[in-house]
Amino acid sequence: MGLDPRHALSEVRKNFTSLNWWRNRVFVPFVFGTATRLYPGYPGYDEAVRVMEEDWDTMIVLDACRADCFERTVDLDRFDEYQSRVSLGSHSSEWTRRNFQGGSFGDTVYVSANPHTALEAGDAFHHVVELWETDFDDDAGVVRPEVVRDAAIEAHEEFPDKRLIVHFMQPHGPYIGSDIGDDPDDERRHWRAYTENLEYVLPFADDIIEVVPGKTVVTADHGQIHATGIADKLGLGGHKPRLRLPELVEIPWAVLDGERREIRAGETSQAQGEQVQNRLEDLGYL
């Protein structure tokens, strides 16, 4: 998708006096983003994983799960294969667009708690279950993982001959599986909550692995940075698009072999989302 000069000029005029806009829309993605893409020796797109070209029957996506945190939290010996891979994106929209947009994956059903699925590639799959629209928990500020698990199992029962992508929102915030207490250290509090949120979601992922047969991959769309000090003031926290920092693009790729399912191709259908902007705001994307 090319840049629309008229839209860009209109956006500049509207936000010219906003320091936050210049920081988040210009400095971070274009100035700092370009610098990180030129980082000497850092893996480029040739080494990034293109998920639809990989061999799996079920892919479980843990949103914003860093590889190093996954490695510290999960017993890696339980997997038949594990490695840290490089993601195509540092943000859900970027990862979704680069992996799925414009594609035709009639052999795949996508169960998603993330609004970017419908926004960027809603017409790329045989069927999309848009949990962010139907089962968003207003109190938690996110789709709960038990809802994702149940929907994934139901989707497999309805479409047993399709590949299955299951996109949990955890460990991405808002954090619902943590008790960070009164620790005054902001950075330590953050990573504690983040890790506890990962621990919270893992049993629900395990339920899917146990019930749904086939070869399963557990991975992430991107990583996470918690910025403090000058990095925070520059807007480098979270997971901004276009940044090729290791903490943002190094993701887990954990494989469990199983009795393979017979996958059949089918038609793709248009996903209909009506509340995308509201949900993106709830999740802190806007």
In summary, what is this structure?
The chain has 286 residues and is of the alpha/beta class.
Strand and helix layout:
Layout: H1 5-15, H2 19-37, E1 58-62, H3 67-73, E2 81-86, H4 92-100, E3 105-112, H5 116-121, E4 125-130, H6 131-134, H7 145-158, E5 163-168, H8 186-211, E6 216-219, H9 229-233, H10 246-249, E7 250-256, H11 276-282
The quaternary organization reads as single chain
Return the CATH architecture.
3-Layer(aba) Sandwich
How much beta, percentage-wise?
A: 5-15%
Topology as a string of helices (H) and strands (E) = HHEHEHEHEHHEHEHHEH
What is the number of strand segments?
A: 7
Summarize model confidence as the mean pLDDT. Answer: 83
Region (Disordered): 265-286
Biased composition (Polar residues): 267-278
Protein name: Type I phosphodiesterase / nucleotide pyrophosphatase
